[in-house]
Each structure stands twice: as structure tokens, then as C-alpha cells.
Amino acid sequence: MRTATIQHVNTRVANRDLKYYIFDWDDNILHMPTRIHLEKRQPDGSWVPHTVSTAVFSLIRGDTRNYRPPSDNWSTAFAEFQDYAQEPENHFLRDTRAAIRRVLDGADRPAPSFQTFRTTLVEGRLFAIVTARGHAPGTLRKGVRLFAELVLTPDERAEMLANLRGYRACFDHVTAFGTDEQELDYYLGLNHYHAVTSPEFDDLVPAATPGAESSEQRKQVAIRAFVEHIARILARTQEGKGRPRQVSVGFSDDDPGNIQAVEEYIQTELGPRFPGIKFVVYDTSDRTIEKGRKIVVSGQLDLGL
How far is residue 149's CA from residue 139's CA, in Å, rounded to a whole number? Predict the structure, then answer.
């Protein structure tokens, strides 16, 4: 006779603070082995092939005098950042697995937001992945699932599932739950996965910010979409519960250009539009600072939904 699996439900999550996160992926959650293919100017004026990591590219991308894409084609430079139908294994998933293994084996130190992302999953909090890559949303979602499978311990996974069921019980009034995999799928489906140079993301841009061309501008579109998503969820789940608790949204990125653009965007657009949300930016460009430099950009205690 088969013994039924006990499904733990942590209803204490109803009393938690309301924190949500937006994560860049490369060099923020993981140090990926993916490489950007460029050409570098030599002292004699000639150009030679030159591959760089995403961390290096964030520092040199404005130096158009000494670095350029092959044949002036950025698609070629970022060939490893796309999905291809005929790949034996998706490049992003292969690199994600390799990056995680290096951390778990002690061959590489965790990226600045590695532990924060791990905690986000265990606590069952909502999040968005916002990256300049060109993958489909489903590819990024598979990468998150792979992270959960490889990084979380059995105890952490059990805690995560208890928290996920708790949120469903408290806010969706669910009394009968699916399997562990079904509950994880439901949770992953609530989150956002934006690779802002992907064809799929193009469908989001015209309706939100016509003319957005740079990765910084497109990341702003993705951030706004997630904040609006959170606002809709809060309007539904917090209705009739009296004075709302403080809501905070954290954004982390290792690219100084993105950090500056997001700070300005929060100050001029998101902060005034969502005065009740506390926006926090984490600059993870300096590897000597364990979790990055924390910047509180804007926020008040009243939730103005």
C-alpha cells in the first residue's frame, strides 16, 4: 500500500513583508562562460578576432575605436546569446549548468546576487529576470528551473514548496494542491522572463515605449512591465485587508550603464507613478562588495494602487 506524500503548507507567509526582485543574469546571478566575439584594433591599425566575457564587455562596450563586431554585425558578435532550433543542447542551459557546477565545486566564487536569488526561490517570492540576451522567455525559465534543481538542497526545496503552497492557500484560497512539479510550474509561471534583445520582446516594446532601441531603454520597458504585474497582483490579494504593508522592489545589475539608466528611470517615471513602492537598486559591478552597493532610489510607506 502506497503512503500518501505529506504536503506541507506554510500559511505564515501571509504575514511576510512584500519584497520582489528583478535580476540581471550574467555576472549578477552567475558568471557565465558565454563569450562575445569582437575584433580588436592592433597598433598597426589592423583588426584581429578577440573574444571577451560579459564582464569585460560591460567595461569596453563604449570603446568603438578599439573594439568592433565582426563585419560590423552585432548578431555575429552575440551569436552565443541566441537560441537555435538545431542545437543538440541549448547554449544558455549548457552554460548555466557549467557556471553552477563551478560554484558548487568551489572553482568559482558565487556572483553577487547568487545567494539572493537562491533565497528568493526558497522563500517563493516573485521575481523577474531581465537580461540583454536574446533568448526566448521559455529558455530563461528553464534556466531558473535548472538553478533550482542544482543549487537548492532537499531541505530548501521542501521549504520552497511549503511556502508556495502557503501563498496559494492564503491569497488564492486553494485547498487542494497539485504535485510538487505542478506547484513549481505554477510559481515559475507567475514570474517574468525578459531577454530584451529577443524577437519575443519586440512585441512588448511598441505598446510600452515606442522607439526604445538601446538595451538600457529596453530593460526599462521590462522593469515597468514587472512592476505593473506586481501592482495588479497586490490590488487583487490585498483588497479589503486594511492598511497595506510596505512594498519593495529590488533591481540588481553589474553594468554601471544599466544601473545609472535604471536609477534615473525610477526617479523620473516609476517612483512618481508608484509612490507606495520602495525601489532599491543594487550595483554589483564591484566584485569586492559581496552583495553589491545598495542604493535606495525612491519609496514611501503608503501603497498607492
Answer: 15
Identify the segments of the chain with pLDDT beneath 70.
1-5, 206-213, 239-245, 298-305
Count CB neighbours of 156 within 10 A.
15
d(CA 105, CA 93): 18
What pLDDT score does 299 carry? 56
Q: What are the grid coordinates assigned to 109, written together?
A: 566564487
CB 171 within 8 A of CB 177: no
Question: Whole-angstrom Cα distance, residue 170 to residue 13?
Answer: 8
Say what the pLDDT of residue 280 is: 93
**Residue 149 in grid coordinates:** 534543481
| H, E, C per residue of 119-149 | HHHHHCCCEEEEECCCCCHHHHHHHHHHHHH
pTM of the prediction? 0.89
Question: For the chain, where are the E strands, in sequence order?
Answer: 18-23, 36-41, 47-52, 67-68, 127-131, 192-195, 247-253, 277-283, 293-298
Q: Read off the pLDDT of residues 40-64 as tens digits, 9 standing for 90 and up.
A: 999 999 999 999 998 899 889 889 9
Cell of 210: 515606442
